[in-house]
Amino acid sequence: MKIGSFRKDSLFKILFISVFFIGFVGEIGFSEEISGRTVVETKCAVCHFQRDGMRSRISFQRKTPEGWEMTVTRMQIVNGLQITPEEKKAVIKYLSDEYGLAPEEVKDYQYLLERKDWIVEKLPESLSLVKTVCTRCHSFARTALQRRTLEDWLLHMDFHVAAFPTIEYQAGGRNIDWYGDAKKVAEILAKEFPFESDAWTKWKNKPNKPDPQGKWRVIGYQPGVGSYQGIVEITRTGGDHYKETFTVEYENGTKLSGTGVGTLYTGFQWRGSVKLDNGGRAREVHFLSEDGNTLSGRWFLPDHNEIGGEDIAYKIGSGPKVLAVSPKALKTSQGTATLKIFGVDLPKNLQAKDISLGEGLTVTKINQADDQTLALEVTIDGKAPIGKRNVTVGQMTGPELLRVYDKVDYIKIVPDSAIARLGGTTAPKQLQQFEAIAFSNGPDGARGTEDDMDLGLVKAKWEVKEFFRTFDEEDVKYMGSIDQNGLYTPGEEGPNPERPFETNNAGDAWVVATYQPEGARPLIARAFLIVTLPRWNKPPLR
Description:
The protein has about 550 residues and is an alpha+beta fold. The relative contact order is 0.09.
């Protein structure tokens, strides 16, 4: 559809555009025969003219793959762009590489790409007007993960005013000169997030960008389940497209394996989709370091982005490192323990005397030894000093990987405040995973000081109790329920004829965890939970 032939239903479609995003992240499956550049030059060129080698609008902005996906999807919904799924993937890949972001332009805002919707953003005072105008409707990171010329930032503001004419009346927007302030914001953003940058020029022209091919040692953590470690092998299938195979083992003994496919955008942004051998699926958003030796990020479930884990993979062959231990804490009174050390490129032919865990801990036997894992028998002196310990293997040291404690002093619920969302009919429910984490007061014996030690996940009894705003509230009865692993599942969206005024099942409550340490009094912690309405609009960038 050409510019100027705006259909009467287009505004309606813009207002609900986010509903229709299918989310390319993880849905990889490119055909090398399709050229993204060719599709842009044929289908995008219908509306975006070219002058002096620059194509209108397209050549004056830079974005992440998710940002370009949102743009292309909007072209489909609003402007009638006819494009096949394979062509769309090729266009997103081309635009992300040609007009993308450098690693340092992404790192401070990658939480949004990783679907960490619980992050509370803090903007500097210099961006207070941006906060007032832009973050009424979406996150600041969504703004910060793009770069534009001043002219294009101004056009971007014009689009907002034209496409969302009711914005002045929404989110308390009538207290500002919306259009006038939007123009001021454009000038601020053009300065803070300019189209041209030394970082992008340097990265785009870098001759030998890192290659993710090879074997990787992965160390990760999944809330509610615990730590895991394993091996991932990545091989190229063509261009920047790859396949992966992996096996991981959780600290509770659960083992998982599977395969996946992924694409590397802009030379460092990994987006993948994996399938477990047990039938489960997950999506990946990871970032390759500039030296190519680490691949870090988050994976999450396709329909429940709030459920997932974070990990970092170290390339095997990149040099010896001590990465993690299991368990992460040893109690002075337990006498002996089996301890596993996880690393990469560990030295061979180790003896017990080559491993140091600090004062009061003695390695008596090595039960397993290879270049990735050591399984040790350790004796613990009952008078071993309390505190964090370095783990030394030969000449390598993993700083403060191990904790030594005498008792659990208190527990915390993580997170201490959270939001879950109703659903099940019009939208998926948004779950909330809580964890009970044990703490030691540390060497100083005082709670809440810098030397307090996180001892890890403990098994607690979980309850939900009323947060009374009025004396007759019964939110807990309708909001949902929590299982004994700390996973809260909200109820269905309303209206509910059983509730006063047939309201929905929203509400707020205390989440309470009770942990019984051996030979000590029960420890109790609580967190605040709000159960609210569904999130109907779920674009890649929110």
